[in-house]
## 1
Amino acid sequence: MWDTLIITPFINFLLWIYSLIGNFGIAIILFTLVTRIVLYPLTAKQIKSSQAMQELQKNPRYLEMQKKYKDDKEKLAQEQMKLYQELKINPLSACLPTLLQFPIIIGLYQALIQSIASAPIDMLNLTRRIYPALLKVADILPLNTHFLWMNLGTPDRVFIPGLSFGIPILAVIVVITTYISSKIITPPATPGANDQGAMMGNMMNIYMPLLMGWLAFSLSSGLALYFVVQNVIQILQYAVTGKVYWNNLLPKPKTQTATKQIKRP
Amino acid sequence: MKKKILSKISIILLAGILLSACTTMTTNWGGVSATDAAVYFAGGTQVFSLQPSNGSKIWAYPEKAAPAGTYLAAPSVAGDQVIVGDYLGKLVSLKAADSTVNWTFANATGKYVGSALVTPDLIIAPNADNHLYALDLNGNLKWTFTANHSFWSRPVTDGTNVYASSLDHYLYAVNLQDGSLVWKVDLGSSLVSSPLLDKGVLYQGSIASTMNAVDAATGKVIWTQKVDAGVWSTPLLSGSNILFGDQLTSIYVMSTSDGSIVKTINAGAAVIGSGAILNQTIMFGTEAGNVVMVNPDYSSTSRSLGGELYSNLVANSTEVLVVETKGDNALLAIDANGNVIWPFSGK
């Protein structure tokens, strides 16, 4: 079911793009772009909901109840719920689009892995997934997996004379773009607000890029390319649709912030 | 709060593990080769030398198991050396007696999917980095030949040329001594199996559902026959016919003279690996875990061994060796009736 409805159509779509272009790297970029465009309504809804939640955290009533009920979690939850209802905010509406996207993203990932087919069993499976009415096995295989300096079927390493190890350039780019894409959508901490969420966000901003970087380092560079394109599109989508906090990327002067916080009544 | 942070980190790590797991869902098949003295089996994590009579382990290389899917190409035997290629691009010569490393060749950047061809003077190793590497028996590189895509199968030779099939659709004839191109012929789709060379004719299947006969001297296509599905195996010679399976359910008996189909045998499932002959019985493994036994009159019976049988079957003088993928065992030795003589667990 999962294979028939998600993975096989995605594989055929990806390979169909490849059959038109003849370059697997560009096919991955276009494939990611098209799927992000198709998923745009969900993404836009998610961005909108996230922004509403972020704005809420600056609301004086919200800040006041955080202080007032800081020792009574149950009451705090009740009051928050009342405020959500009053302002017509559904806290789950930010999560739901993400959850809906999740199976599609996993499908994309698997389609990519299976299309690269760098071992006999993968190619055997791939030949069975190709729609004969759309693509011919003889024409489409083998894929030309070379793109720029990379072989998209193997982990990316650039070897420089004199160095005994390869540099994973794409993995580094994945770390940087993942960091930027998560950092610029995190609003600056509101003084007085519950800092638990901010702390969690900061942890995510560190661990997520590292995790994605590790995957890009150890898996095929085709997948790493997909991660990079995905991140760049996400940054652009946020820039177009929502509010981005470019200042988050700059180092913060610690003493100034501390002084400001002290001066607040 | 700490708990929440920890659970969040755990979820991220779990997601990472799941994502990584998605890449290793498929199980590749291993390879086997045999002499009268030993059976050599590349079982994924290690290469084993086994007693042909009872399957007991003589040695395992490396001693500590490598990650799954490292050793899958069938080992080749060159006198007292066993040549082992891995999926990390390393070709190693081991002493057949005790697996001591003689030499290592690490120039390749791709996987060794097919096993090396051994001639009296040379070892010719096909690699997925688009190269054939010819080494002398001490592991010194003599020449390389480059195609437009991967070599996944063992080349064959007539003592003058090396014939190698590539995923780039071409069957190549290369001079054995210096690696220069003699001829090449486009057979229309990826070639994943070795050709069969008989009386100056190469028989080569393709994944675009064709069997081709090519003149080894000139590279001229003599005939091409369409079959129902992709051909992943090297044909077997039986009198004036060749036998091979396809990736649907058929085993074909095909005339070598004009490619006409003499008989089609229903194997019940895909036949990916090449067959083997033992006591005039031709045997094929199927993806459904059956071994199909074809008699000299082309009548057939089958027997279930379990697992999935993708690898080439290999025969020595008394038994046929069957690699079992996703089964209870890793390797089985069977007789001409399909009875198991010994199993090997792969550990």
Note: Helices of chain B lie at 2-21.
## 2
Amino acid sequence: MDVKITNQDNKTLVVLDGRLDTTNADRFQQDVNPLMQMEHPDIDIDCSGMSYTSSQGLRIFLMLQKSVLAHGGKMVMRNMNPQVKEVFDITGFSNIITIL
Amino acid sequence: MKKRFNPIKDKSSEIIEFLMSSPDIPDDDALQFKLRLSIEEAVENVVRYAYDGGIGWLEVGTSLDHDSLILTIELRDAGVPFNPLEREDPDITLSAEDREVGGLGIFLCKQLMDNIEYRYEDGNNVLTMTKKV
């Protein structure tokens, strides 16, 4: 999976492209680790290219969301494909992460 | 089709792709998404936890009943006896602050497949997942 992270006007834009699975979850976690150090993060994740996520990906999104709340910030995920959205729905993640 | 992988350390992808290439799996993207996710979670469970240091084997197979169109995916290993279905389901109503990180893998299998059964047989863990395809 390709991960692009850009910071602009106090906003962090994350663009995900590909499959998030057991082969690349560790690397994805390293990619987003710096976002967990930020004070008042404002994170916008574009998921239009993310075709798949396993529980390994979900755990990272939950860690990120926990960190965002603990640091007084906000995070949205947008343009999720219907199958990935279903995974967020059945795990209850749709209720704890803002999905636009 | 059936194959035994040995050793299985760092072989998750190979095992998942072997199962996903089965002729028993129909060419249907939405269905394949659910099957891939269930297979990944079940395979990872064995690769990560069944054997100390990941040294051991995992036999995986698929079969399709052509009358009922029920697909069966079976995983068999000789690791530590462990029934993953005994693990309590996560409470999906909790807030982000209160949710525990992890513990979603087998829960996803349960949600995405029609049925999952575990048995301990001849010194082996046997996990059987079925879904109408």
Note: Chain B has one domain: 2-132.
## 3
Amino acid sequence: MGKILRVNLTEGRISTIETKQYEQWGGGHGIGSALFWELCKDKAISGFDPRNVVTIMTSPLSGTLVPAAAGRTEVQGIGVQGYPTEWFTRSNFGGRFSAMLKYAGWDGIVIEGKADKPVWLNIVNDHVAIEDAKWLWGLDTWETQEEIWRAVSGSRDFRDWIAAGAGRDGGRTTQRPAVLTIGPAGEHLNRNASLVHDAGNGAGQGGFGGVWGAKNLKVISVLGTGSVEIADPNALMEARRWFASRQYNVDAPAKQSPKDNFSFYGIITRSPAFGPLIFNMTEPCRPQGCAGCYIACRRRTQSGLGNESQCVESLHYSVGGPQTQWRATDLLQQCGLNVYDVFVTDYLRELYKMGVLGPGKQINCDLPFDRYGSPEFIETYTREISYREGIGQDLGEGIIRAAKKWGRLEQDLNSGLLAFPNWGYHEHYDPRLEVEWSYGSILGDRDINEHCINWYVHWMPTVTAMVGEEPLYSAQEMVEIISQKLVPYKDPMMLDYSADGIYAEGKAKMIAWHRHYTRFYKQSMAFCDWAWPDLINVNVPGLEGTTPEAEPRFINAVTGKNLTFEEGLETGRKIWNLDRAIWALQGRRRDQEVFAGYVYQVPTKAPYWLPVYENGQWKYSTNEGRVLDRARFEEWKTRYYKLEGWDPSTGWPTRPTLESLGLGKVAEELERHGKLGK
Amino acid sequence: MLAEVGYEERLVGYEMSPATGNAPRSLYSFREVCDFLRVGNPEDLLTKGSHSSIGYLDLEELRRWIGSVLGDRDLAEAIGRELEAHKTYRERVDAARELMRQRLEQCRAALSE
């Protein structure tokens, strides 16, 4: 472990923090939460407040050869997207930023205060400068990065060496700086503004682009020429060989896709380079991945359209043709917009069709709905939000706050017209059914976006059923394999999504395991969400994935520690409790942890495959016609709070729970504020 | 037949995608419905790429919508017969889609599109 860069923008002061003193938190999110706890004195402030503290953290695995774990960066602080409270929250992005930060000698960055003019934080190894960024203000995220590359690297060709310091040993590289920047949306203090790195890596959720804009922080760039020390290089290489032997064999795949690059099977079989998942790639393209990733789930294209974007950002305007869709995606990245908040053109069209939105209507709007599906529509829409023009003046506040202003919020949340089940975040997976997702979200601060078991319990049976094929494994097989990996519980009923199972003790254990696993392994050690955990592997006999053996094996090879999988989960529980304490100080109460009305009132109407245990048997069910039962969910919350050692009446952590985790000082702080659970 | 319908007369489908889960999608015209309704076969899911999600519709609701909202009773009855004749969702979709495709072509021909 090395050092963390601390930057106070108000005072223009640069200092360092020794990472060692935060070692107990692992890395990434754990250290970010601990830093926020100490440095943000008033946690009930707005995310736009200069006193807000933003952390940008790597993990001990960043920049190493650990598969699908070297390229993620964790961003934390008080977000501006959450509703009704701007919760302390997190976001995360891929690419090469975390690796480059490590190569420059830094484990993370802490941003405090607010600059009095737009600034650029320029990091070249251990040389750090707060520089003027007025010349960059107004540029989009791609233009900004190109300007930074030119400023740091000069006009060198991409094959040329760039000297990072003076003298022979000053360090040199052929790489351009890794740049994290805001676009016009962030400059206009949008609550749906993202941070963008390279072409298509974005930290969207939370609205950290707007937070940076409020701090007058336009961009952070980093160029590093060092390396990451590995405690046991032989063990790391041996672990890689072992892991590779269990992955998709491109020369002789055990479960061959029906066609090359067949995206759905690519996810299920872990076939590398399943990039065409989202886009209709009818042009030559090649796989592209984050630093150190063997999956390479994105692509670079001949035309340059849609480079690196790979997920929901690619789907928000699928009503247009492919070219329009690619362009719409690039516009989001260039403007620095969080797709999950602006993914509401359908909703706006509903209001238009209802006659309440349009020129001169109750909600005045000049968007060209008569050309819905055209490039013109999405270009106008994106521009108006990013620059706060027209209806963008409202939408820049986020769709939830806009709907509130229009007087539509409650009715549209109740009807499901506005499908935002928790904290002002867009629905992702069905909150009435796939409850490891929705319960985890409502107990936290955002849409969790953690696919840990989603691929297995939902997507495998969904894809195979809809195309009329047999599941790759039965519900019984799946439950037997996965439950044995969900230590320490190992309870098959954790995977029961039946109408009773989602309120049972097993589901409380499932949520606890999931919250603790992700807080440590995904968000602190930065194992990628699209690759980990590795629970079922169709490429090996017996279908057993490498979890829970792989994660500690890789961590120990890199760090030289002797961590067990269970110890990692325990650290995750500690981090989860610290986050919970922060939310308590922000005003979190049990009665706030309820979903939007439609989750309780509007039955599901489409098939949604999940495993259920009914009449003594496991099977995949379509689960149609379900709503969440309000009373039973409240009973389930009590069950879960007790399992976590929280006060069932408030949901706040108790002193015994916090002290057992070494968080006695946190308990004292909560008690001072009258927020300690009883 | 090809005109857009109003809000109350819309048909709601569900876009199923790994990136977004089941997302409701309001459909306001026969063209939109024809474009939206798709179920995978591996070939479609690959070649349609960006549309490699599944466009799900309740097929009985679709039949009723075509008959009552669009007023095309012949097509609705023909779709009804195909729904009776096939068992799996995919087979039913394929059959319904083919009938809808033919009707769309007839409409276009009549409009000289």
Note: The radius of gyration of chain B is 14 Å.
## 4
Amino acid sequence: MAKIVIVGLGAGGFAALLAARKTDRNAEIVVIDRKDYDLMHPCGIPYAVEGAIGSIDNLKHDLNMKAMRVAHYKNYIADSINLAEKTVRAHSAFSGDEEFFAYDKLIISTGSTPLVPPVEGLEGLLGKGAFTVATPEDASRLRAAARATGKALVIGAGAIGLETASALSDMGCEVVVVEMLGGVFPRALDPDMAAILQQYLEEKKISLRLGSSVQAVRGSSQVEEAVVDGEAVPCSILVVGAGVRPNSSIAADAGLNVSRFGIVTNEKMLSSDSSVYAVGDCAESFDLIRKKPCWMPLSTIAYRQGTIAGANAAGADESFKGVVGAFVSKVGEMEIAAVGLTSQAAVDAGFDPVFGKLKDLTRPDWYPNGREITIKVIADKSTRKILGAQAAGSGAAWRVNVVSAAISSGMTLEQLSDVELAYCPPVSQTYDCLSKAVDLAIRKIK
Amino acid sequence: MNAPDELKYSKDHEWVKVEGGSAVVGITDFAQQQLTDVVFVEMPEVGAAAEAGKPIAAVESVKAVSDVYAPVSGEIIEVNDALRDAPELINTDPYGEGWIFKLKMSDPSAAAALMNAEQYKEHAASESH
């Protein structure tokens, strides 16, 4: 009867405990987590800020740990792991009491923490008008601040930055987004696709400063202004959406292999120690397209990896193949989705990309209320294999999901062209824009 | 209706810009409007023979495939490669960056027989009711 200890209760830890319990009804499962409640959903935070889910407490979620016979040590912070003795040392955040948890199998699912860029003055103003966006508490404070004041500056034009910018704008704030790289979602979208979202943001009166950076944040007791490219921009709210970094130090300190991507794992989600698994944002992933380690901090991946690790810790022998990076963000009304490689990433990886792209309506033009969607599918000219896709508009995600399946199963353009899609006029068109985009790519290389 | 004065026009809505013994050819603003968003351009091969009045290229939108006819006879000497990845140039700049092919005219005086801008505008207006 295995004793399984799970450190960190987020998407990965939760999936692991479910899978472990399902695989071995008798396994002893212990969860160590720093929160004083069970589970929360960070991806919902920007939407919670604007009131989309009602009370912000709806981000929090109770699990029936007793019914699952899981010993849950809430408010416990794991301090170190002793691989030789197979113990985790943790302490209660309440009492300070230290405890040692012995394990047969350990699953590290410690997640990630917002990256606070080394901007002069920023660290000191966190909590005084400057916010990271990682917890329901951040959401409550941001919501209160947004109602009270007018000008917000957001660092980072990725999902967190833009979803939060949109929420703040909808709440009446004047918003400026500052992004270091040249476009929105710079690692997921080609410039022509990013331009679609950029135009939408402009129409929403969200000011975008691309290729720009914040040098300093100033304020006597609260944020008052930020210096952007040498220019002082007044703001009373500053949101840090500059990415996250893996919480892998506990693993590194214990002597486990840790790369710049996080805790190194194999396809069984095992670390360099055969009794220790690592999953989610704190762990490395494997890029299925470029066939090398990568980092992909997405809850969907954390969940699937957690499921594999939990099952394996309880005696199964499952494998996690790797990731293709299927992602969607909803910024206001605009759905943006992408999977696989951008055109530049394809070139950098040594592929010879060809794309099929088109702007279309989501319904036949004789049916009312069709909305616009632009979709771009990228493939490799020599092997004809699908490398990636990007879509902006209504129905972006489901189409990108089809391409996600195509990429991970190694489909060519011709095979993807053959995929049957479901249709009725309120939903799509007889000849869907995804198929059209694929066929345009095929025509180019005939 | 936009039809620059310095160009010549065919009844099939192609424009011709005469450059010495060569002709640059594209489709008119009227034609691109009828087509709506161009998604693909089937271009001729360099070296191919173009015969006046016969289809030499095709412009496709989501709903239609439209032949482009050679307005004069000649040999294709250049095609607009930019249209491969940006077919929408035909919509945004039909007389400039949206040019489709260039040919060396077999008879340089043949272009004179094409319509001028005024005649073309009348012709297009009569077609569009």
Note: Chain A has three domains: 3-36+74-112+245-313, 122-242, 333-444.
